[in-house]
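Dissemination and training. As part of the outreach component of the grant, students in the summer workshop were shown how a complex can be specified as a set of sequence lines and then modelled as a single object. The example used during the hands-on session is reproduced here so that future cohorts can follow it. Participants entered these lines:
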Amino acid sequence: MKNKKTKTIKVDYLARVEGEGALYIKIKDGSVADVKLKIFEPPRFFEAFLRDRDYKEAPDITARICGICPVAYQMSAVHAMENALGAHVNGPLRELRRLLYCGEWIESHVLHIYMLHAPDFLGYDDAIKMAKDHREIVERGLKLKKIGNQIVNLVGGREIHPINVRVGGFYKTFSKTELETLTENLKWARDAAYETVLWTSKFSFPDFERDYEFVSLSHPSEYPFNEGRIISNKGLDIDASEYEAHFEEVHVKHSTALHSVLKERDAYFVGPMARYNLNFDKLPPIAQEAAAEAKLGKECRNPFKSIIIRSIETLFAFEEALRIISEYDEPKNPFQETQPINGEGFGCTEAPRGMLFHRYKVDKQGKILDARIVPPTSQNQKTIENDLRAFVPKYIDLPDDKLTWQCEQAIRNYDPCISCSTHFLKLNIERN
Amino acid sequence: MAKKKPKLAVWKFASCDGCQLSLLDCEDELLALAEEIEIANFPEASRAFIKGPYDLSLVEGSITTPHDAERIHKIRRSSKFLVTIGACATAGGIQALRNFKDVNEFISIVYANPSYIDTLQKSTAIADHVRVDFELRGCPINKAQLLEVISAYLNKRKPVTPAHSVCMDCKRKGIVCVMVSKGDPCLGPVTHAGCDALCPSYNRGCFGCYGPKEIPNTSALSKEFKRLGKTNEEIKLAFRSFNGYAEPFRKESEAHEE
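and obtained this result:
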């Protein structure tokens, strides 16, 4: 009888993801017997060596968790520290932080859209091979990415591991004229980002939807970056300080990382698709128009379409950057002075790949006593595995190489960043 | 017939991926570069894999697991020219902070079930394990310097990556000294150039991303930090960061251990 056999799909080193991971799927008698998304990124022990460091070092040190989204680590770190110290950064400094985050979302999203994910839809190993047939498109992607990096470069000092972020604000601020040097490129990019939404919407998407619990920040008037309550489509509505009462990390034996789950329910979904579903009404008109033209509703449950949503968020980020620059007035001081006290602080911000939680305990000398960091990819990991469990049976008759590629694509839907390795384990790959 | 292109491979060990991302951040040069060199192994960017040997290997990250300590030897054997990129690969990186403590204590702080963790006591530089042909400094590396290294390799010349201090670049740029004018501690006098004196140009002291310059006078700088009112603990932390296990910085931080 057909399919009455065991077969195994293995990808020993997942490509076009950041960091080191592997995939293992066991198929028995035509159904999925086992799915493991394995992470063999070596542990780096950030939470351990943050102890006894100075609270002001947290943004510079935690940036080194991830070279793709260092700004996210810096933002969660400074907000958690300010929460511990009772400080609150407002006005143009707050706006500059949003501008910096726009830059990171753009460079990270465009990297994923054009260089890591689109090649799957169009059948290429990578963007360089894709450029042989689609040179103008790849060049457009590179130019968009470069403009995102220009924002991070100016506001942060450099693209990777920016140096300008500090607890209380920045080391240096900018005149309006300095920021306006970005404007012309941003205007071109806003149009190109709109085109990107339409381009990705024409890809062919597998018919695949699941009933996810989407979790993201939600702010009363803004599409979320740094502030807001943590909400879900299944009734969650909490402050960052309550995070650990609702989420826990389960140390699963079979492999991988610590899987983060909601205690009340189970696996959940963070990242662009979660933000979009929970905050559609906060997107600016141009992003909502693009979504409509792309025939994407206010809700989307097909993770393969996350590439369209990433494009919409990129468009949002360019629009938001232009808004911030046009309304900007240079602040008098680049930062607020902060004084250490005995305290505990929580910070949750929206990294390109989803919610990033930091908690610190500090003493009145400014020494970090305890740190906890939960990166987005460890939160999505269980959902990724569940997707594969549901996805593989539908495509089980595909030849192995095609099925493997489809599974890789299903993982890349989440833009997993395995280098955010604070919670990832070393493991051995099972081999038959 | 077209000349055979040299084969490039990018390898990752314990790291943040930022240094290899620098290659993809060369937005203006990437496609031109791909015409000169065959990208044979670069999993962050491509699912294609072409077998070695490789003409040029870029190695990111430090050695922290028994498996990686073996893997680097295989990579060395399949690489004609091996370049380490970034502070992790050249000095053990931020994760080398474990080297000053008991790693088992670190494991129990982070992980619920320490028995699953397979890690070495120390995070070490690639050059502690295999012969390295060229080291590119920085946390992260400077992408212009990365292009310089690749282009020097393609043109069979030595890369130009000056080994003087950040302080020299700062003076050359005419930036007001943050240590003299504001009393902010700055590692610029002992730190290897490469960032174009970035931090002082953003009103803050250098914190040593590029590691020690050649023959750094760290003890003289520590004396100056003391004069500015810094405690031994603060001096220790200043030297003990992204390049804390590079020997001159390690020794200086240990001299201020209390």
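Residues 421-432 of chain A have pLDDT under 50 and may be disordered. Students were then asked to discuss how this feature might be tested experimentally.
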